[in-house]
Design goal:
Blueprint (H helix, E strand, L loop, with lengths): L6 H12 L5 H17 L7 H11 L4 H20 L17 H14 L15 H7 L8 E4 L12 H5 L8 E6 L5 E6 L6 E4 L2 E4 L8 H11 L11 H10 L3 E5 L2 E4 L20 E11 L2 E6 L2 H14 L17 E5 L5 E6 L12 E5 L6 E5 L17 E6 L4 H4 L2 H11 L3 E10 L2 E7 L14 H7 L3
Parallel strand pairs: 14-16
Antiparallel strand pairs: 1-3, 2-3, 4-5, 6-7, 8-9, 8-15, 9-14, 10-11, 11-12, 12-13, 15-16
Helix pairs in contact: 1-2
InterPro entries: SNase_OB-fold_sf, Tudor, Tudor_domain_containing
Protein name: Tudor domain-containing protein
């Protein structure tokens, strides 16, 4: 059950019991097993009724429903025994491991609900990825939500703290963005490690499966529950005056203010990426990681000139070596590649290699996408003339490619054949966190001959790879 004003807490509790499966049925099964274990071990023995009721209330479960489930389980077990179906014991008992158990439960649930279940197709009910990123101002839809009806005459950053308070359930770091419109964007930055909690000696995963973070699910749940998000604002003049005193804006003239922009880094470490209004780009694949993940160059004069300029400045003289104690993660340096020529690179944050006593460091060659482990004393300072040139290689991912396809050797061979020594066209779906999601074509598609354009994504489907 979900008490009034505690519906989000009840939802989070259910996620905990779901153990990372995002299934109500799994959540109830885990909760029922723990309740049975506590009953068998007399955990409710002291002041039994009160203790058991408190436990049920803390876990937002109806105690009467638990007892009804127990009666139903006993009845089904007895009926199966009358038919000679009993749980095996001793050496013949089948024990499922942590991989087999979820599969068995999935099959059991499909059988129980047959034919009243469905499997969503690849295009059924999907949201257009390109459109979703546009709505969110280029931010990651898997980590971002937005509010509407913000008074655009107000200094948004003044109310950022209040907006964060609308998510008391959020344990991740939050960034609040404004774009001088009626929209407010809230981006969550959850940890990459699986969040777990220990209950009755067992660890439960409190996160969600897939790429969408738990905080986005909770925010959407708030909307489904029609929970009001209220931010009380001052009068516009008073708001700007307060924001000015806090250093959030600067006064241009009487009654005229401008928000203070955050300082940018001294040089860019972000690749040259397509804008949101660009639908097709011409690219050349330079490094292939697998069928769904690669690095590419833009095929244009500017990229060719920049690459030539970088190589000329790096290999025309002697560069100063960087002392080990001055090396910083994500900073841009120069290092020799396999061909013994210098290329620009940045240090990858890798705790296994980047240690005090380590003589090896891992770098990403930012103009091509290769990753190499090199001697830590081989990094050199790059000339100032090419320091501000953005990385010329962009990281790309094929849109709507599943992990099973990525691990298919035949699909990887087809991708290598499709991209080898060829200029290709990419239909841009989205650009999220510096990664371009696209569909690959041999030739530039046109509206009237789109079906005749060879799409690599469609080729994988046709060949059932």
């Amino acid at each position: 059950y979900s008490p009034f004003q505690e519906k989000i807490l009840a939802y989070l509790n259910r996620l905990q019991w779901a153990d990372g499966s995002c299934s109500d049925l799994i959540a109830y099964l885990n909760l029922f097993k723990v309740w049975q274990h506590k009953k068998r071990t007399n955990a409710f023995s002291q002041n039994s009724n009160s203790s058991e009721r408190n436990w049920a209330r803390q876990n937002y479960i109806n105690l009467r429903a638990l007892n009804e489930w127990n009666i139903l389980v006993n009845e089904i077990t007895q009926r199966c025994a009358n038919l000679g179906i009993k749980e095996s014991v001793g050496q013949t008992r089948v024990t499922l491991d942590h991989i087999e158990t979820p599969l068995f439960l999935k099959v059991a649930m499909c059988g129980a609900f047959y034919p009243n279940y469905f499997r969503r197709s690849s295009d059924g009910g999907q949201v257009d990825e390109r459109e979703a990123v546009k709505i969110l101002g280029g931010k990651d839809p898997c980590k971002t939500v937005y509010f509407k009806d913000m008074d655009h005459s107000q200094p948004g950053p003044l109310y950022a703290r209040r907006i964060r308070e609308l998510f008391p359930f959020c344990t991740a770091k939050m960034n609040v963005y404004f774009d001088n419109s009626f929209r407010v964007y809230v981006e969550f930055n959850p940890t990459t490690l699986a969040e777990t909690i220990q209950v009755e000696g067992r660890h439960f995963v409190t996160g969600m499966p897939g790429k969408i973070c738990k905080e986005v699910y909770c925010a959407v749940r708030r909307r489904q529950l029609k929970m009001h998000n209220v931010v009380n604002c001052l009068l516009a003049h008073d708001s700007w005056k307060l924001a000015s005193s806090l250093g959030l804006c600067e006064k241009l003239s009487v009654g005229n203010y401008r928000l203070v922009r955050r300082p940018r880094f001294k040089h860019s470490t972000t690749s040259v990426l397509p804008d949101l209004d660009i639908q097709y780009i011409k690219i050349f694949v330079v490094v292939c990681i697998d069928v769904g993940h690669f690095w590419a160059h833009n095929v244009d004069e500017e990229t060719a000139e920049n690459l030539q300029k970088i190589q000329k400045h790096l290999n025309s003289g002697t560069l100063a070596q960087i002392p080990k104690e001055e090396i910083k993660v994500e900073e841009i340096y120069a290092a020799k590649y396999d061909d013994n020529h210098l290329y620009r690179c940045k240090v990858i944050p890798n705790t296994h290699l980047f240690k005090e006593n380590s003589k090896i460091i891992q770098v990403l060659f930012i103009d091509y996408g290769d990753i190499r482990s090199i001697p830590i004393n081989s990094l050199c300072e790059i000339p100032a003339d090419i320091r501000d040139i953005p990385p010329q290689a962009m990281e790309c991912v094929l849109s709507e490619i599943q992990p099973s396809v990525v691990q298919n050797p035949k699909a990887n061979a087809e991708f290598e054949k499709f991209t080898k020594d060829a200029n290709l066209y990419g239909k841009v779906y989205s650009v999220v966190n510096g990664i371009v999601h696209l569909e690959l074509f041999k030739d530039l598609p046109h509206d009237d001959v789109a079906e005749n354009s060879l799409s690599f994504n469609n080729e994988l489907i046709k060949k059932r790879l």
